[in-house]
């Protein structure tokens, strides 16, 4: 979702009783996978008595997300709001999550951190 | 209690507390900035054709191609402008100190066939307009200029701006604009649907804090959007022999052009 959100930004989500409209940014999982995707809703059909179906597209992508939805039978042409959407983005705090991202990208940093903590425990007088 | 480690910890702790307090102040103070957005949106042409609108379409379905005029013009919210400028529509006042960018989009919403289902909505055009303080990104919208593009690419490196010449961010004047996306319905049929509405929306993405969408009602200093909607009906299906292929071309957005004018 560049240039709106970058890796490491914290997103605050809301998912209580929402009627998702186009233009909202939703976090969803592709059915069958556990990868959350943060994209914007560009089409909606249904709602009310039928399941609400959404089509999404990332701002930085030239095409919509049809290609990344589940392909195997039964394939997905649209997102089902109840089943697939984790929440809708309501707010953001930039750069806060970058520590987690760094530890995810360079796992040896965790060992370094624990080493430093151990050292500080050993070297303190009390 | 005076070792350097403790001092570093105290300084760092104080730094994070102050940073969070400033961020909270910035996020909340947005409510104090005055906004007076207005725009005029007019449908120019809508055609419903049967064909394959997307590269992944497996069957022929009906899709609609909507062209529109948009005039979201300029007025400085501070200081007060001369009265002659007050007639212009205005989207610039949405940019405050906490705005990283504004995502403008135009949607077409039409009622569904059964009364228990709410209206369907589809985005037909969108643009990312960064604020002047935001770092450059190749995905920003570049406003089309009326002049012809320069022939030589090496000499005049015209850095396209998201707003027309001599204007400021938030002014968008489009005439007979092609859509970026065609409208398809999940049932495959969109001809002769009535009571459709073309409307302008925006999403303000802040540096920190809550995301804000279009408000038509006024809340304190934030006036609601004036104008920016147009009602129309989808026409009946047009035969393929009466439609020219060029009429159905869609606009490619900046995310496809990556820096060249959209």
Automatic annotation (TrEMBL), chain A:
**Keyword Hydrolase appears in the UniProt entry:** yes
Q: Which domain of life is it from?
A: Eukaryota
EC numbers listed for it are 3.4.21.89
Task: Write the record's keywords in alphabetical order, separated by commas.
Answer: Hydrolase
Give the protein name, as stated in the record: Signal peptidase complex catalytic subunit
Q: What organism is the protein native to?
A: Vermiconidia calcicola
Taxonomic lineage is: Eukaryota, Fungi, Dikarya, Ascomycota, Pezizomycotina
Automatic annotation (TrEMBL), chain B:
Q: Can you tell which superkingdom this protein's organism belongs to?
A: Eukaryota
What is the protein name stated in its UniProt record? Signal peptidase complex subunit
Species this protein is from:
Vermiconidia calcicola
